[in-house]
Amino acid sequence: MRVVRTPAGTIVLDDTGRVAGRGAYLCRSVDCLDRAIAKGALSRALTTPLPADLRTQLAGSLNTPNTIEGGARGQE
């Protein structure tokens, strides 16, 4: 998934990969999101301090299961 800081300064989840702004890619799990926020990696990637309610805002939009399409060679 892609998290974007838009030119207006808001932080949004980008499912399309086309939202304008500075983006950072994360795996689609709450654990990955928690680690990126706790270690400061997401803040550094977006070059902005993160709002306090960001985790709940983004975790609520992670409704899809963590699946990978295709096999090791993309043929399964």
Topology at a glance:
Blueprint: E1 2-5, E2 11-14, E3 22-25, H1 30-38, H2 41-46, H3 54-59
Antiparallel strand pairs: 1-2, 1-3
Question: What can you tell me about this protein's structure?
Answer:
This protein is an alpha+beta fold. It has one domain (2-59). 28% of the residues lie in helices and 16% in strands. The protein has helices spanning 30-38, 41-46, 54-59; strands spanning 2-5, 11-14, 22-25. Strands 2-1-3 form a three-stranded antiparallel sheet. Strand 1 (2-5) and strand 2 (11-14) form a beta hairpin. It is globular.
Spatial strand order of the main sheet: 2-1-3
User: How many structural domains?
Assistant: 1
Mean pLDDT: 83
Order of helices and strands: EEEHHH
Proportion of residues in β-strands = 15-25%
Q: Note poorly predicted spans.
A: none
Helix content: 25-40%
What is the number of E strands?
Answer: 3
The number of distinct helices, counting runs of at least 4 residues, comes to: 3
CA(first)-CA(last) distance: 22 Å
Rg from alpha-carbon coordinates: 13 Å
Large-scale geometry = globular
Largest sheet: number of strands, sense, barrel closure: 3 strands, antiparallel
Q: Class by helix and strand content?
A: alpha+beta
Output the keywords.
3 helices, globular, alpha+beta, 3-stranded antiparallel β-sheet, 3 strands, 76 residues, single chain
Give a quick precis of the structure.
The protein is α+β, with helices and mostly antiparallel strands. The chain has helices spanning 30-38, 41-46, 54-59, and strands spanning 2-5, 11-14, 22-25. The protein is globular, with a radius of gyration of 13 Å.
